[in-house]
Amino acid sequence: MLIYLEKNLQKNERAKHIISCYKNPIVLPIDNYKNIFDKNIAWNTEKTIIIANLNNALTQVPENYGFPWEGFFFKNSLNCVYDCRYCYLKWALKNNNIQVFFVNYEDMQNQIKKTLEQYKNSQYPVWFYSSDYSDNLATDTISKFSDFFIPFFETLPNARMEIRTKSINISHLLKYKNREHTEIAFSLSPQEIIEKYEQKTPSLDMRIGVINTLLQNNLKVGLRFLPLLETKNYQEIYTDFLEYISEKIDFSQINSIFLGGLMYTYEDYNKILQKEKTLDVLYKLEKNEDGFFRESREVRTWFYEIFWKYIGDEKLSICLDKKGWEFGTGTLL
């Protein structure tokens, strides 16, 4: 493993732990992670990581992104160990194989506290979405992210954290029973979708298994049906999928459920088309009135209504599709 280490972190204990997780590492000092990460690299970077500090870990989320209150993307690492074909990281980052671990957790902690000061009089919690640039749970043994931030968020009355994941790496989370401020949000897809577009990720049954284990241990769990894909025979596939998971998961125990279709800006759509020329679902998208490339309104209507039929609307939220959806009417709000 080739490891680039920012020079000011050579004595950092968190950095030392990450290095110790790899066999026979070659460690090269660098001044700043961007000197490597933001450049075109000719060699295979799949066995390369960077350990660095990050100055600003928080970015405000767009309207209707998730929970209906204030929220921030919480960037603590870059790139994902998985390689889902539709993933925006393929075009958003120049080197989409290099894993970057940011280790200045105490600075991130202070940024979160400072941000919360702006909302100290709010009656609603502020949400921090921690896995939009990587799958934190998949690399948790290396990064020790959960062991630092789950206890930290419990000390913040007006803050909540989402850890979104496809990983089944949950054994170390069981010690955090009855924690109220962190939700483990699992991305779920039909097995046919997983095999075609989410290769090398855990199977649907494996994900369901760890969801039920967490629920049995009184941890907060969310479900994320993102993105919904207009693949061949999608209506049959997703109907069978909903019937199946309805038998396997007690939705009444789930804290929140989000769903949404595939979507890209015009620029991003053209970028991912260059990298995934044979990805069939990309060619089903059309330019929407809001400027995004999405599935057609007819397809989105079908998806939203079938999920409403099986799950109901008590916990169901639509992501990034105007202000939401009036279930049972097929009407965008």
SSE map:
Elements: E1 2-6, H1 13-20, E2 26-30, H2 34-37, E3 48-52, E4 58-60, E5 71-74, E6 77-78, H3 89-92, E7 99-102, H4 105-117, E8 126-129, H5 140-143, H6 145-154, E9 159-165, E10 182-187, H7 191-197, H8 204-216, E11 220-228, H9 234-248, E12 256-261, E13 263-264, H10 266-275, E14 286-287, E15 293-294, H11 297-311, E16 316-318, E17 325-326, E18 331-332
Parallel strand pairs: 1-2, 1-3, 3-7, 5-8, 8-9, 9-10, 10-11, 11-12, 12-16
Antiparallel strand pairs: 4-5, 6-7, 13-15, 14-15, 17-18
Structure description:
It contains eleven helices and 18 strands. It is α/β, with parallel strands linked by helices and 333 residues long. The chain has a domain of 165 residues. The strands form four sheets. It has an eight-stranded mixed β-sheet with strand order 4-5-8-9-10-11-12-16. Strands 2-1-3-7-6 form a five-stranded mixed β-sheet. A three-stranded antiparallel β-sheet has the order 13-15-14. It starts with a strand and ends with a strand. The model has no long low-confidence stretch (mean pLDDT 92).
Report the order of strands and helices. EHEHEEEEHEHEHHEEHHEHEEHEEHEEE
How many beta-strand runs?
Answer: 18
The helix-and-strand class reads alpha/beta
Strand proportion, as a percent range, falls in 15-25%
Largest sheet, order of strands side by side? 4-5-8-9-10-11-12-16
Mean pLDDT, as a whole number? 92
Assign a percent range to the helix content.
Answer: 25-40%
Approximate shape: globular
- Describe the sheet with the most strands: 8 strands, mixed
Stretches with pLDDT under 50, minimum 5 residues? none
Q: What's the number of helices?
A: 11
Distance between the terminal alpha carbons, to the nearest Å? 50 Å
If you compute it from the alpha carbons, what radius of gyration comes out, rounded to the nearest whole angstrom?
20 Å
